[in-house]
Amino acid sequence: MNAATPAGAPVTYAAAGVDTEAGDRAVELMKDAVRATHGPQVLGGVGGFAGLFDASALTAYRRPLLATSTDGVGTKVAIAQAMDVHDTIGFDLVGMVVDDIVVVGATPLFMTDYIACGRVVPERIADVVRGIAAACSVAGTALVGGETAEHPGLLGPDEYDVAGAATGVVEADGLLGPERVRAGDVLVALGSSGLHSNGYSLVRAVVRQAGWALERHVDELGRTLGEELLEPTRVYAADCLALVERFGVAGVHTFSHVTGGGLAANVARVLPAGLVADVDRTSWQLPPVFGLVQQLGQVPWRDLEATLNLGVGMVAVVAADVVDDLALAARDRGMPAWVLGTVRDAVEADLTAPDVVAGTKGVQGGAVRLHGTYRTS
């Protein structure tokens, strides 16, 4: 049987929508930013099949534990694409990944990234990676490799998504976590820079329903709506590790990274069974963007606090005798810090009350009781 004669021009990879030369140009544009994150532990430079990291330093550990995390940015990338601003989204990616590692006291060693796009625009991809590299420098971690994949037909020409993974290390006897938390401990809030990178499906739905343009100037925000929504995530890793180094594991018992699920759900994950944290909603003033989202969309407060960070990006669970000094040290490093609540035995707590959150993300640990009314401007 004779094969049918194909109609039309020959099909090439470029004709199918993949431009390998554009990918090479993107690498050339980004490689200096990536190299800037490399210390002597990184071998091989940019462009190899695998990133190499010299782990000789781990031989000095008595019992090194490796910590790893992976995450993405979620639908915040839609804001970056709509505004055609791509050099900040990397802070969101790095923050979501390395700040999960620091929760257990681990130092992030290296990170890799993955970008999927409908069409490689070298300058756009380079901007994304430059942002990732800049955030890695803030976190003190090396960006050792990555991948850019062109997916024509699956993603639109100007669409992309980003993901990343990082590996860190912590000495076993320096591991932070629920096992260190005791009744009488205090929760110290470390302020967020804004929405960070969670809850954007809710936020975008509110904005869409209200018919607001990203270019709209909002007086209470002091800038345009788009600029506020694109505010980069605060990267806490280096600051949290500095607090642990100063106050030790006797002072800092664990951290909670406030991401998807909101404040209470994430704090509950780092408390042991039998303890409850009382969180005072009146202890801080909500940044204007959160009140704006609530009012603009008439979002129920319970839904809002189960979705957004409401101004608290990280929580340190600390011994009572270091609270004042630790909060001052955090503020000296440029982070807003205040007492959020306290930890107590759950014997007399009604864990079925509507303001109590427990058993989230598959963790059967402690509980968080929210009380008071949020202060809005």
TrEMBL record:
State the PANTHER family in the record: TRIFUNCTIONAL PURINE BIOSYNTHETIC PROTEIN ADENOSINE-3, TRIFUNCTIONAL PURINE BIOSYNTHETIC PROTEIN ADENOSINE-3-RELATED
PurM-like C-terminal domain mapped to chain residues = 182-346
Q: In which pathway does it act?
A: Purine metabolism; IMP biosynthesis via de novo pathway; 5-amino-1-(5-phospho-D-ribosyl)imidazole from N(2)-formyl-N(1)-(5-phospho-D-ribosyl)glycinamide: step 2/2
Q: Which CDD domains match?
A: PurM (cd02196)
Which leading EC class covers this enzyme? ligase
Family to which the UniProt record says this protein belongs = Belongs to the AIR synthase family.
Zinc as a keyword of this entry, yes or no, is no
Cite a single GO MF annotation.
phosphoribosylformylglycinamidine cyclo-ligase activity
User: Alphabetically, which GO biological process terms does the record hold?
Assistant: 'de novo' IMP biosynthetic process; adenine biosynthetic process
- Protein name, UniProt field: Phosphoribosylformylglycinamidine cyclo-ligase
Gene3D superfamilies according to UniProt? PurM-like C-terminal domain, PurM-like, N-terminal domain
Catalytically driven reaction(s): 2-formamido-N(1)-(5-O-phospho-beta-D-ribosyl)acetamidine + ATP = 5-amino-1-(5-phospho-beta-D-ribosyl)imidazole + ADP + phosphate + H(+)
Subcellular location, record wording: Cytoplasm
NCBIfam families found in the cross-reference section: purM
Q: Which residues form the PurM-like N-terminal domain?
A: 63-170
Instruction: Supply the InterPro entries for this chain.
Output: PurM-like_C_dom (IPR010918), PurM-like_C_sf (IPR036676), PurM-like_N (IPR016188), PurM-like_N_sf (IPR036921), PurM_cligase (IPR004733)
**Any one GO cellular component localisation term in the record:** cytosol
Q: Does the keyword Ribonucleoprotein apply?
A: no
Q: Which UniProt keywords apply?
A: ATP-binding, Cytoplasm, Ligase, Nucleotide-binding, Purine biosynthesis
The organism is Cellulomonas oligotrophica
Domain of life from the UniProt record: Bacteria
**EC code(s) of this entry:** 6.3.3.1
